[in-house]
Design goal:
Layout (H helix, E strand, L loop, with lengths): L1 E8 L3 H12 L4 E4 L8 H4 L3 E2 L10 H18 L12 E5 L2 H16 L5 E3 L1 H7 L9 E5 L3 E2 L2 H14 L3 E3 L4 E5 L6 E5 L2 E10 L5 H6 L3 E2 L2 E10 L10 E4 L1 H8 L13 E2 L2 E2 L5 E4 L5 E8 L9 H14 L10 E10 L5 E4 L6 E5 L5 H18 L16 E2 L2
Parallel strand pairs: 1-2, 1-11, 2-8, 4-14, 11-21
Antiparallel strand pairs: 3-7, 4-6, 5-6, 9-10, 10-11, 12-22, 13-18, 13-19, 14-17, 15-16, 17-18, 20-21
This protein binds flavin-adenine dinucleotide.
Flavin-adenine dinucleotide binds next to α1, α2, β13, β19 and α10.
């Protein structure tokens, strides 16, 4: 039995960032990952980092996005990790009159709240992103948004944690957790047993299964996200690119019910909307994705969905029409049933914490989610912004 102070289950960006920040505070941390670091959602995502500013009254979303932006930047600039971080800015394509009216209202609202967004005409947008279709009606411009390589960034957090004294253990699948009041947690893995007074669940789409080992119901479901890539091209795209169709759809009908999280593209196999995001990577590949579907733990991409996404991307960037799909992949995003992050202390068990529910934007929000949780554990005081993410609203004991 190996003893430590804090055990973290899961080596995605949420767990790796928590480990890094706790180790920075001098805490004794061991992270248990069943595969490799970044082997699930954190390693296969699009690498888009969303941020539109702190706003006049910073809320949880501003902390998660703007805080993460600063952490990514310091990882690359101060700690010297090449994570391909770049404050590229982002353009959201407007394709219909209804989308234009919605985005116009949204820009006025966000600017009045102190956020940095702008509405560009198509000609203005083409001056900074020449490949955009002239048929667009305009673009929502978010200049603070950024991008980074998901594998390199997540691994950099794990490496920085190790450099600060954390133990990062791969191929350690947690199979059983024993907890008795006032006793430390005893965690069995595929490679031996570990003991710690404090336990952090950062198991992404698998949080439900880990919670069940403790007799808890954690309402996080796996949502499949899928992507495609072209062969490498010379530099052609400079921003991260998205489209307004799904924003308008989810504004009018988020699509959630007690068993279904909001903001999905499908209900069963029926398409509700087309969602689109992508960028050109450092290697020159153009990568795009968008579909979000509940298909349990199935990670095989759906080719019909890829075709729809490729078609949508080509409407926004016509040069993609002739560019074949070279490869596809999929991963599982951790969606809470109410769509909001779950970050904080789980009241049913002593010294038990969770950092998850980061859904479709956990790459861009994970670094600060880990820091906020590390602050909470280290000081025993909940950062005030975590009130919005308190597990008390949804984590229950199994009867
Ligand atoms: C296709 C796709 C595109 C996306 N694009 C973006 C994007 O552009 N921008 C953005 O911000 N977000 C994006 N996301 C979402 C983002 O990737 C996720 O929200 C984020 O990576 C979740 O991180 P995590 O650490 O919570 O989970 P994960 O990365 O899934 O990590 C959880 C880890 O826990 C481990 N684990 C599970 N069970 C056990 C166990 N029993 N024992 C030990 N280890 C265990 C898993 O192996 C895994 O490594 C995308 C996701 C997908 C799938």
């Amino acid at each position: 039995m190996i003893e430590t102070e804090i055990l973290i289950i899961g080596g995605g960006i949420a767990g790796a960032s928590t480990a890094y920040h706790l180790a920075q505070y001098g805490r004794h941390v061991t992270l248990l990952e069943r595969n490799d670091i970044a082997s699930e959602a954190s390693g296969v995502n699009a690498g888009a980092i969303g941020a539109i500013g702190w706003g006049n009254v910073p809320n949880l979303e501003s902390y998660l996005t703007m805080g993460s932006l600063e952490i990514f930047k310091s990882l690359q600039v101060e700690l010297g990790y090449d994570i391909e971080f770049r404050r590229s800015g982002s353009l959201q394509a407007i394709q219909t009159e209804a989308e234009y009216a919605y985005i116009q209202r949204r820009v006025l609202e966000l600017r009045s709240q102190g956020y940095t967004v702008d509405l560009l005409s198509t000609q203005e947008a083409q001056m900074i992103e020449p490949a955009l279709s002239p048929a667009l009606l305009g673009c929502l411009y978010m200049p603070l948004r950024a991008q980074a390589d998901p594998q390199k960034a997540t691994r950099a957090f794990a490496s920085a944690a190790e450099r600060s004294g954390a133990h990062i253990l791969m191929s350690h699948e947690v199979t059983r957790i024993q907890s008795q009041r006032d006793d430390p947690y005893r965690v069995e893995t595929s490679q031996g047993s570990y003991q710690a007074a404090t336990l952090v669940i950062a198991a992404g789409a698998w949080c439900g299964g880990v919670g069940a080992m403790l007799g808890l119901r954690i309402p996080i479901v796996p949502v499949r996200g899928q992507m495609w890539a072209s062969d490498p091209l010379p530099p052609r795209l400079f921003h991260t690119i998205s489209a307004a169709e799904s924003s308008l759809q989810w504004h009018t009908a988020p699509g959630n019910d007690p068993q279904t999280p909001p903001y999905l593209t499908h209900r069963g196999h029926q398409r509700l909307t087309r969602h689109l995001y992508g960028r050109q990577t450092h290697t020159g590949e153009i990568i795009f994705g968008g579909d979000r579907q509940l298909v349990e733990y199935q990670k095989k991409p759906d080719s019909a969905g890829i075709e729809v996404n490729h078609g949508h991307a080509a409407e926004v960037l016509p040069f993609l029409r002739e560019l074949p799909v070279a490869r596809t992949w999929a991963g599982l995003m951790p969606f809470a049933l109410d769509g909001a992050p779950i970050i904080g202390r789980i009241a049913q068990c002593p010294h038990l914490y969770i950092v998850s529910g980061l859904a479709s934007s956990g790459f861009g929000r994970g670094p600060m989610a880990g820091k906020l949780l590390a602050d909470y554990i280290h000081t025993s005081h909940r950062p005030h912004v975590l009130a919005e993410a308190d597990p008390v609203r949804c984590v229950t004991q199994v009867a």
